[in-house]
């Protein structure tokens, strides 16, 4: 009999985000079912006791190559399906939360996913409003410290698999269109200005496979801060429920599905540049979930 659910991420020197990822998924499915693919970390974040009982697979450090990375992760997650009913892959700054109005836990959600299915999360950037919100305490409940999220099609990722898939670079798409339900992805890259700039310093200075690769992770500090503050300056809405009958959520979800209908043979099966025109206040039922 297989175990119900595994969670996988891949890291290099993620001393801020990895403890958050391990706490979130370890609490949900047990640390023994969490797998960290360590791409040559040197900061101690992937060594005991920091890894909190998770399994660590160490691979040699090499220049960042998203095509190579996705191929390796696709094969690794497929291999885990020999031992698990379902496997989650997310980047280390991405937290999955099934709708608390329907599901008591991530394990309960995964138990309802059909054999051979792949679930695409509804994706959001968690956005700090720097003029109103202080720096994050990464050891505490993040959703109690941040009020605002922004819809992002780039974060609508196929994240929970019950069959082998081949992720495209960036893990945004697979060789099939999106299949949404009530699973949400909260992306933390923009949740804290200071931490975001610190991470940008590392990614800007690490080796990349080509001079063009990873341009969004190598931009100047001022450009990145301006992007975050631009998001923070969007109008805020407090009427969004994130329930299935929410017309605003349905509008953006349908925009993604419509974009998929004309990309049937493309590497990226959805338009990755659909971003909400407002910040939405995070509904209270999510506040104790991450």
Automatic annotation (TrEMBL):
It comes from the Bacteria. Keywords: Transferase. The keyword Transferase applies. Pfam families: Glyco_tranf_2_4 (PF13704). One of its GO terms (molecular function) is transferase activity. The keyword Transferase applies. This is Glycosyltransferase family 2 protein.
């Amino acid at each position: 009999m297989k175990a119900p659910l595994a969670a996988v991420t891949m890291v290099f020197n993620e001393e801020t985000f990895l403890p958050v990822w391990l706490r979130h998924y370890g609490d949900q499915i047990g640390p023994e079912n969490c797998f960290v693919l360590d791409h040559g970390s040197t900061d101690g974040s992937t060594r005991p006791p920091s890894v909190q009982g998770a399994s660590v697979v160490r691979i040699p450090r090499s220049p960042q190559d998203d095509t190579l990375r996705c191929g390796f992760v696709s094969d690794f997650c497929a291999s885990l399906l020999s031992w698990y009913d379902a496997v989650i892959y997310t980047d280390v700054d991405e937290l999955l939360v099934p709708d608390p109005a329907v599901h008591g836990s991530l394990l309960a959600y995964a138990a309802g996913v059909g054999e051979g299915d792949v679930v695409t999360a509804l994706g959001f950037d968690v956005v700090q409003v720097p003029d109103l919100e202080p720096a994050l305490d990464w050891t505490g409940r993040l959703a109690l410290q941040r009020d605002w999220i922004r819809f992002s099609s780039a974060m609508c990722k196929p994240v929970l698999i019950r069959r082998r898939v081949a992720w495209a670079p960036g893990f945004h798409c697979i060789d099939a269109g999106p299949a949404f339900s009530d699973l949400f992805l909260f992306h933390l890259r923009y949740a804290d200005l200071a931490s975001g700039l610190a991470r940008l310093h590392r990614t800007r200075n690490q080796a990349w496979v080509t001079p063009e690769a990873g341009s969004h992770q190598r931009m100047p500090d001022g450009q990145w801060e301006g992007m975050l503050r631009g998001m923070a300056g969007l109008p805020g809405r407090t009427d969004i429920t994130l329930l299935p009958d929410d017309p605003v959520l349905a509008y953006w979800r349908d925009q993604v599905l419509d974009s998929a209908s004309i990309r049937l043979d493309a590497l990226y099966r959805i338009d990755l540049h659909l971003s909400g025109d407002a910040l939405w206040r995070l509904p209270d039922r999510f506040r104790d979930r991450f």
